[in-house]
Specification:
The structure is a single chain. This protein is an alpha+beta fold. Helices cover about 30% and strands about 35% of the residues. Helix 1 packs across helix 2. The chain is globular, with a radius of gyration of 15 Å. The mean pLDDT is about 95.
């Protein structure tokens, strides 16, 4: 995938992530670990761990995208195999995180469709969203991008002293949703 300017947000470029994006990606994720329930992580990986993850995704041809504005990464998304077993090889799970400062600005609405296209190009046929805490904004974003509700696991996570649900959503990548 080459970098692309969005028509909906002309000041945003969606491009493949690079290892040198690791510091910005680590900062975005660390904010969500410390302040949100979209991830059930309670300790954020450092930039070195993110650099390794990005390099691994690139080496395996797996989609890992960055959204950039004014030369800085403001969001990222990637699609990883849902499970390691061979029978799941056509199914991926998406992860998408937007910087705290850029939330609510429509970044997710251009980044997630780009990830869907990249996952389809990588040979995936199904994409699952595992929405920690059942975050309403994430559920709405995924619904807007063609995902359907696939289930809810109740009280499976505990963060900030609260029991949290996980919502599963699914998108059939074999269907053209444009």
């Amino acid at each position: 995938m080459t970098a692309l300017r969005t028509t909906r947000l002309p000041d945003v470029t969606i491009r493949p992530a690079r290892v040198d994006d690791a510091q910005a990606i680590a900062a975005i994720y660390a904010w969500h670990v410390a302040n949100g329930t979209a991830t059930f992580d309670t300790a954020a990986p450092d930039a070195g761990a993110w650099a390794e993850k990005i390099a691994d995704f690139l080496a395996r041809g797996m989609p890992f995208l960055a959204a950039e504005r004014d030369g800085g990464v403001i969001a990222y998304a990637y699609a990883a195999r849902f499970r390691d077993r061979a029978a799941y090889a056509h199914t991926c799970e998406d992860s998408i995180y937007v910087s705290h400062e850029a939330r609510g600005g429509g970044i997710g609405s251009v980044l997630l469709p780009a990830l869907i296209d990249a996952a389809r190009a990588a040979g995936f046929e199904q994409m699952l969203a595992v929405v920690g805490g059942g975050e309403p904004s994430s559920v709405a974003l995924h619904g807007k991008c063609g995902f359907v509700h696939a289930g809810r696991m109740r009280n499976v996570g505990k963060k900030f002293g609260r029991l949290l649900d996980t919502v599963y959503m699914q998108c059939d990548l074999r269907e053209d949703r444009t």
